[in-house]
Predict the structure.
Amino acid sequence: MTAEEWPGGPEQVRAALEETGYLVDEGLAIACFLALRLNRPVFCEGDAGTGKTALASALAEVLEAPLIRLQCHEGIDASQALYDWDFPRQLLRLRASEAAGVTDPEKLEGALYDRRHLLARPLLRALESAPCVLLVDEIDRADDEFEAFLLELLSDFAVTIPELGTVRAETPPLVVLTSNRTREVHDALKRRCLYHWFDHPDLARELAIVRRRLPEVTARLAEQVTALVQELRRQDLVKPPGVAETIDWVRALHALGASEVDASLATATLGSVLKYREDADRARGLDFAAVLAGRG
């Protein structure tokens, strides 16, 4: 499905996403709709585990388009994100050409620097595979230079490869950028995008997400675990659990054969939801029994 094929407005986008199991609010549905109609990236910012990356997967499913992911990290540069030359294959080609008696420098260069020897990284694959969904995950982990490079590429969805010429997307990819806000991303990049802040959902919405994602678990187990996670987020934790951790916790308990959870089992399975020793120690001091009794 392309942008022009959306059967209506944001509500239809919302319904299509919910059919994949991804629940969105009105603001996010509008952002996704405008991203498609205006060819604008969506900049998703918020705590880890709040559904930013999952949005790109859901959009790819709705559009029936490939999902291409670029995972950012400290020190990432253009060659890691865009393209590189396959030096071992170039060397083999050079030796084969020399063995065949090719000595013309221009012919040798043309044989070495052709498309067959180019390793397409995620950004180049997105330009060549469009229409597609391009996920630029955790852009806040990259440095300023990479941000500037990405901004230039997103401005016209084209890149020039000196040896081959310009590669331009026939159809601009739908771009989703995510940030966990470990640092502030420059305004220039944000201004190019439609912005949406991802907050932790309230109990009712989180429970609906869990039930949609894990329909095989009992309603009581889903409600109890969601209530426990909501209580954990009210504590002063190093890393408050996101929706992804809630789903992991419910899935783990279900795998253990639990149809409901008590304080003892909750404490024993904290490793499914909390990933720091300090957070686990603080959680063990909570009265899980009281929280569960409130849901009884």
Q: What stands out?
A: The two ends are 45 Å apart (CA to CA). The mean pLDDT is 90. The longest strand covers residues 174-179. Residues 57 and 124 are 19 Å apart (CA to CA).
